[in-house]
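User: My collaborator and I are trying to settle a disagreement about how two of our proteins should look. Neither of us wants to argue from intuition anymore, so we agreed to look at predicted structures for both before our next call. Could you fold the first one, then the second, and keep them clearly separated?

Assistant: That sounds like a sensible way to settle it. I'll keep them separate. The first protein:
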Amino acid sequence: MSNYAYKGKDFEISRAQAVQALASRIKISPDLNPILLKPLGDYRSSIFLRGKFYKKMHADDYYRKFVQKTGMTTVLRSFHILEKNHDLIIIEGAGSPAEINLTRYDIANMKLAEKTKSPVILITDIERGGSFGSIVGTLSLLEKKYQRMIKGFVFNKFRGDLNILKPGFRKLKQNTGKPVFGTIPLTKFLLPEEDSITSDSKQLALNSKNLKKIDSEIEKLSKVVKSSLNIRAIEKLL
């Protein structure tokens, strides 16, 4: 869900997925964001399927009538198109995978991972606090089959001395049997944000004039992420 969209030739997708395409050095295409919800207020959104406007829909209709049939079919169609053309697909979830009131309708997280036989890494935003409890709580609320699909954790947006976290990592491994793949430090960069909650007036606009600057910011961020994660351990999941 995002009000920030990228408009290509005859299609419209979330701006975040367009930036991810630039980072992946691939063509921006509607299959990178098969379902886009643009919020209108009062629990209604404009729905775009594979870059094309579909209809305006109330949240109740979206969950009860759309996601399990048209929604999942659309997403899997895009996945299989990408699968034919790329060696690796990274599927970004949305929100928490353990919203137990919406489990049967949640096609953005564990259901899609199950359909595509994808190993899952659970990422927590430690800047907001409560990350250890959030991880353990999330796991405990998931069905056993989904718990088994989660292979480890990443802590994002950390500031401070990493040694402070290490006892927690050991306890987390004892309690869950799953490793921490790394801790990404809070990093300031000028890439366009996904939504207005974290918007900054200094961020670069996504346009042809800024492509070199955006590429430079992507390179900066990628170096931070690469140096912060156990890439070899993650590669072994594939």
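The second protein, kept apart from the first:
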Amino acid sequence: MGFVQASPTLKKRKKKGRHQDNLGSPTAV
């Protein structure tokens, strides 16, 4: 889901799950 790294709102939601989401890693999804 590449749109996740494009959306700061979704990124914040995934952030609580993985800090690696910062780089928009597929593992964060």
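Some points you might bring to the call about the second protein. The chain has a mean pLDDT of 57. The chain is about 45% helix and 0% strand.
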